[in-house]
Design a protein that fits this description.
Helices cover about 5% and strands about 50% of the residues. The chain is an all-beta fold. The strands form three sheets. Strands 3, 7, 8, 11, 12 and 13 form a six-stranded mixed sheet that branches.
Amino acid sequence: MYIILNDDKQLIITENTNIYQNENLIDKIYFYIPSVYKNMDLNDFKVFIQYVTPANEIINEELVKNGLYKDKLEYVLPVDTKFSRFAGNVKCLLKIRKTVEKDDNKITYKMNTSEVNIEILPSTNYNDYIEKEENEDGGSNQEFPGSIIVEF
């Protein structure tokens, strides 16, 4: 999924990817922000994403900077189960920050963006609908000590 920050601080989804409930570390959301905004160099700013899940959980995370893509700074958010736990719309915005010291004073530069909605599609575990007699493990996704489960 690709999201661009326009000059008017609007976040626009330019390429959408289906994200299903409980997916973990398969998809990434790429954010592209201008390297310069109103004559302010954003290269050394920190970029945070704040999102509200369908269960009304508010989560803040610092985005990882990947570098420069064309004339935009590229940041990435790996989609984990914190983000995809619940089906529905996840409301996201970016907070762009930088604090500097000048003449023994701290100056904090702040910019917030518009909200963008990312839909998390429901995912069904069909094993939950199979009777225990028809399925040896009773329809559960058993986890064994020391095992790592990666679902696709």
